[in-house]
Amino acid sequence: MFRALLLDRPDGKFEAKIVTLDDSALPEGDVTVAVSYSSLNYKDGLAIADKGKIVRSFPMVPGVDWAGTVESSASPAFKPGDKVLLTGWGVGETYWGGMAEKARAKAEWLLKLPPGTDEKWAMTMGTAGLTAMMSVHALEANGVRREKEVLVTGAAGGVGTVAVALLAKLGHKVVASTGRKELEPYLKKLGAHTVIDRAELSKMPRPLESERWAGAIDTVGSTILANVLASTARRGTVVVCGLAAGPDLPTTVMPFILRGVRLIGIDSSQCPLPERDERWRKLAALLPDGLPGEAVEMCGLGDLPKLAEAIVAGKVRGRTIVDVRK
């Protein structure tokens, strides 16, 4: 038997509740894992708050991330006792996720933890950390130099927090954009060189603005992304990995054809295993101690409905780690 947060819609009415389930309720898969930690991402918040049509079938255990210990395995790639993590692959949307004391998954979705790390560290990073690491890699692979300014939008969120910390660790001059100016000390402790108000990027965009930064990681989308593109320097690179402000993009082709700006999308959910493993190892090398304490909040399964509303409303900073045993 195991405890889980279960989302269901009996008689058309949505509910999210803690239940106790038998192991026979677990979905099909090669590997059964005793989960230690999950984490709360923006997508999880939408699912638990019943917003955004994230869940594709009910009942569903949410949680796009989890880490734990293998209990049993039909795959030669894993054995009982292995410490493993999972992020993405549609887990928590079409396949039961990690906000439970047990999970079962396909072996090809799993990674062993990077050497020297543990399950709590893995969920301090989670999907947000993998996405941030992929985004930083894309900037550097496309020639964004470390002596130039790099913008991070939604900088106080999960991806933004890790991205600021990674870029600072690598020696970039980080400009952090946030709608919560009271978090300026927090962002500067993470390594931000400058903090700007989100309002600077929220105006009606023009096709081009003065060149300001060599690269950017955008977690927000919509008008803010349009303004980011308009202000990116010649031959700069903008990486987009979120749409908290909406999926639209009210821009023109001018940044691309007059300045040679590159726009690169990041999809960490379906990232191939070899690349995924490499990015996780790089994360462990750059941030072996995780994030500062004020960037991480711990919670239990029972706290998730309230926290889900908060993360969707943009009132959560950094990373929220779920101890599924509480």
Radius of gyration: 20 Å
SSE succession: EEEHEEEEHEHEHEEHEHEHEHE
Summed up, the helix count is 8
Sheet with the most strands? 7 strands, mixed
**Helix proportion range:** 25-40%
Structural class: alpha/beta
Number of strands: 15
CATH topology of the largest domain: Quinone Oxidoreductase, Chain A, domain 1
CATH class of the largest domain: Alpha Beta
Total separate domains: 2
Low-confidence stretches: none
CATH architectural category of the largest domain: Alpha-Beta Complex
Average pLDDT value?
A: 96
Structure, explained:
It is globular and about 60 Å long. Helix content is 26%, strand content 27%. Strand 9 (173-178), helix 4 (184-190) and strand 10 form a beta-alpha-beta unit. The protein folds into 2 domains: 2-116 and 290-323, Quinone Oxidoreductase, Chain A, domain 1 (Alpha-Beta Complex), CATH 3.90.180; 127-265, NAD(P)-binding Rossmann-like Domain (Rossmann fold), CATH 3.40.50.720. The chain has 8 helices and 15 strands.
Report a brief summary of the structure:
With 326 residues, the protein is α/β, with parallel strands linked by helices.
Task: Describe the secondary structure blueprint for this structure.
Elements: E1 2-8, E2 15-21, E3 31-40, H1 42-48, E4 65-73, E5 83-87, E6 102-105, E7 111-112, H2 119-141, E8 149-152, H3 158-169, E9 173-178, H4 184-190, E10 194-197, E11 213-218, H5 222-230, E12 232-240, H6 254-258, E13 262-265, H7 273-286, E14 296-300, H8 304-312, E15 319-323
Parallel strand pairs: 8-9, 8-11, 9-10, 11-12, 12-13, 14-15
Antiparallel strand pairs: 1-2, 3-4, 3-6, 3-15, 4-5, 5-7
Helix pairs in contact: 1-8, 2-3, 2-7
